[in-house]
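Data availability (excerpt). The following record was deposited with the supplementary files.
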Amino acid sequence: MIYRRLGRTGETVSAIGLGGFHLGLREDPNEAVRIVRSAIDRGITFLDNSWDYNSGESERRMGTALREGYRDRIFLMTKFDGRTKKAAAEQIDESLGRLQTDHVDLIQFHENIRLEDPDRFFAAGGALEALLEAKKAGKIRFIGFTGHKDPLVHLRMLEVAAEHKFHFDTCQMPLNVMDAHFRSFSHHVLPRLVEQGIGALGMKPMGDGNILKSGAVTAVECLHYALTLPTAVVITGCETMERLDQAIEAVRTFKPFTNDQITKLLARTEPHAVGGKYEPFKTTPSFDSTAQNPQWLGEVPPM
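Predicted structure:
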């Protein structure tokens, strides 16, 4: 396994992170437990999850897997959807219960996909107030945000944070061979994170499998590309042991791409990236879980 520094947190984590969403897809929950424990035994220390994944089943399965000493061996992250202090606080506590732990190492503001999301995060009575209280109580250690829609929304979150003199510990976003050509997080957001010492968490290295449908790249090439970027962690979903084996093999064989290799790889993928065809999370509402479930956000403040 390769280990990297997580921004300015002082933490060192595995360069590959185990995605939590896919753990809730299998019919047999015991298979998810086996995948999590095998990942940890093979050196993965960064575990991803979210309050809303599979109606909480992803967190419940991960919580079961982290019994018997596994929790102390990993860096645990989950996400919340609440835009209000009340909703965020409730979701944090529910996540801790499902994960069977008294704290998570990192909590992230999920789906920063609307231009108003940064305003709601920092508003009076907003989510940040719940996070600061939870941090004081020892329930969380670090704070980050995620999003998959448009780099402009991420940049606005960073701008609003600066206005409030707040420093995020991490930021999660799609980083893949198609992203380089369309609404690019790697071009527009990643340099800002490096400059500010914010741990960059890459997700959707294969675009939830859509990028592989282009036939332009292999799964291992996708992982190697994302690992070559200045990422702290590349999070990949592993709903089967075969997918976990693939991720581990990608780390074992990893050598950073040269500039020439990147140029050739991106030239190969550019014709397929037009219009975000293989990144539907950017161009369609099908991945916008908080838009489909607005009740998760909490009460909208009065105008």
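Summary of structural features: The mean pLDDT is 96.
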